[in-house]
Amino acid sequence: MGKDNEENAVVMSTLPKTWILDLDGTLLKHNGYKIDGKDSLLPGAKEYVDSLPKEDRIVILTSRTDEYKQMTLDYLKEVGIRYDEIIFNIPYGERIVVNDRKPSGLDMAIAFNLDRDVFSVPQITREL
Question: What's the pTM value of the predicted model, to 2 decimals?
Answer without folding.
Answer: 0.89
